[in-house]
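S1.2 Input.
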Amino acid sequence: MKYEDRRDAGIKLSNEIPTTWAPHVVYGIASGGAVVGVQVAFSLRLRLEIAYISKLPIPWNPEVAFGAIASDGEVILDEGQYRQIGLSYMEVQKIARTRLNEIKRKEQNSSINSEPLNVKNKTVILVDDGLATGYTCYGAVLWLRRKGAEKVFLASPVAHRLAVDLLTPTVDDMKILLTSNNKVFSISVYYRDFPQLSDRDIRDALTENRNFLRTINL
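S1.3 Output.
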């Protein structure tokens, strides 16, 4: 199966969300998760929020992560990967600072100046456009737990099996439409149209969501 684009994937994903989850809010991981997540939020008539998380990429292989960093500065490392690649503490700190600056820039540029929802004791659906290593999502789950979310459910159109294995113990349940065991895995392969997204794409998704909620008086 191929999705036409992220919105198509979001519509298909929203049709498979279990009714038993009963979430209070949808969080999309910036950037792709915002465009997929807004469709899930439309379907569930819920507010969309954004999780600003970045993977920590191996310098000579940026598609592979050795950890993640959240917008609050918390760093999560894949200890096995970190030791194997042989990066020094200073190198890790430099990569983390660079990624945190990018997160803060993205957060500032895509904001629509609405008060963030307090997720303490709330049930959250976390959405991304695909899970390769799973470490960006892993960082987002831990970030939501630190914010006090009572339950975190995960939903994605596609994921690699290793990412599913990593994330299963961290969430209350998950819905993945397509799972791959391929040694070489790329999320973009599962989309006919998979453009790079801008800060404006995130802002547009948030604006669409807020306008929709106003029309249904939520």
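S1.4 Remarks. The chain has a mean pLDDT of 93.
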